Fold:
Amino acid sequence: MMTEEATKATKVEETQYLTFHLGDEVFGIGILHVKEIKEFSDLTVVPMMPVFIPGVINLRGNVVPIIDINYLFFKKLTTITRKTCIIILEVINSNDNEKMEVGLLVDSVSQVIDIPPAEVKPAPSFGAKIRTDFISGIGKYDNDFIILLNIKKIVSLDDITRVLEETESFSEKNTQED
Structure:
């Protein structure tokens, strides 16, 4: 049986979303995935990273990979402006249940909104500008539609961990050769 707190947490996850912009599109992420929002600051570029990971940041002593979801979705790099933000997410690796922080580079962050489950429709099977497996649903809010993202698909820790491990072994090889 679920405690009252667990029930409330589940309801929050199902109805509250942090909204953000990529170009003219508005997207939403369940707020329970969001750890914090940071102003954009310089990234440390790591050699051999895929294009959609422009670098990493140091967040209180932790190395946090940053994903440029503009590039991941639309194959165009984010143009950095004064509104550009990094959304820090806490995600769980499916292999070992280890928590990891990952940042999403976005054009701007809007607000936290409530979308009742009745106002969320399934992801379309075709016609979307982004991969449909990245979409968990389409929410209706104030006569607008918000694309609700499937964070587990976008931030596949297995893929990111593999990329980071490959990068670390590449860096170690180069350091040893010097």
